[in-house]
Amino acid sequence: MSLHHLSGRRKKFTAALAVVAVLGLSACTSNDDSSDDEGNPNLDGGNSNAEAGSNDEAGDKIVIGFSAPAADHGWMASITDSTERVAEGYDDVELRLVEGTNDVNAQISQVETFINDGVDAIVLLPFDGAAMTPVALQAMEAGIPVVNVDREFDDPNAARVTVLGDNYGMGVSAGEWICNDAGGETDLVIGEIQGIASLPLTQDRSQGFADALGECGLEVANQVEAQFTPESGTDAATNLLRALPEMDYLWNHDDDQGVGVLAAIEEAGRDEFKMIGGAGSKQVMESIKADDSVLKATVIYPSTQGADGLKLARLLAQGKAVDDLVEVEVPREVQLYAPVVTADNVDKYLETAFES
Length: 356
Fold this sequence. Notes:
This protein has helices at residues 3-28, 74-88, 104-117, 129-141, 167-182, 200-215, 230-243, 255-268, 282-290, 305-317, 346-350; strands at 62-67, 93-97, 121-124, 146-149, 161-164, 190-194, 222-225, 249-252, 274-279, 295-300, 333-335, 340-341. The chain has 356 residues and is an alpha/beta fold. The chain folds into two domains: 31-159 and 303-320, Response regulator (Rossmann fold, 3-Layer(aba) Sandwich); 167-300, Response regulator (Rossmann fold). The strands form two sheets. It has a six-stranded parallel β-sheet with strand order 2-1-3-4-5-11, sandwiched between helices. A six-stranded mixed β-sheet has the order 7-6-8-9-10-12, sandwiched between helices. Helix 2 (74-88) links the parallel strand 1 and strand 2 (93-97). Mean pLDDT is 88; it is low at 1-5 and 7-39.
């Protein structure tokens, strides 16, 4: 299969779901295309901006429970902050926002409390999708619709709707960028810094990366694990740089841990390679625009998934459909796109980037 066909297969699948995302989530807000003062479209939408008859028109008062991991890096903080901000725009939504935790048992207890309290819907970004599957199934069996965000459950029946970034597509996008930039050269040394290696999302990113590189005759020379934090990025990059005294390209899965990765690179005085990041932080995009480091690109992984999940949970709890679709039910899955940001298009994405 050619690189073009690999990309086409991924993009065809993602594009179909992206249409759902664009139609569905624009319908969840008003059809006003205006942005807020920070340039983030629709985050300030809600009942106050709703047109009569639109999905955003005030409905029955509902309670939505939201649980996510601890905001120990910028992307995760943005997940929670954007969800809370969107909820504030709805007079008919009461958001039960619990403290973020990386303790699976604590998160299970949070969901059990939501079930016992009889909330109308739950938006859940699990620290561990497999571990959270049983309690999510309990919620669904209790008649409480669950919107699963980012990290998938083991059982599709544990969620009414799943909102995902395109992890495999991130890897493909990063690999394609390297293939295109390499211009046909195959004798190249490529490093990879993962996030948490045990997570399916990380494994999907690595698989997409390997598949795309393989289509142009390249492969990863050395792969190390970080933990999505700056500190872990420093440690991982230090180990990788020692293992690879010469390198041509580096893909770092996450821009938050990339803060530490770049610090280690600067400390080592290395500048012979090009780096592509992942997620799309504001600091990374500004660095790409300034062209002041080895960092030349990043792959977007939207930090608005929780907010999107809340909008969909509101529709489910109020018995509404997505009014831009003919289908009378909210879709089962929404997957967001993973474009590459470079100096050529950075201004298009900079205003919606999250802070590391």
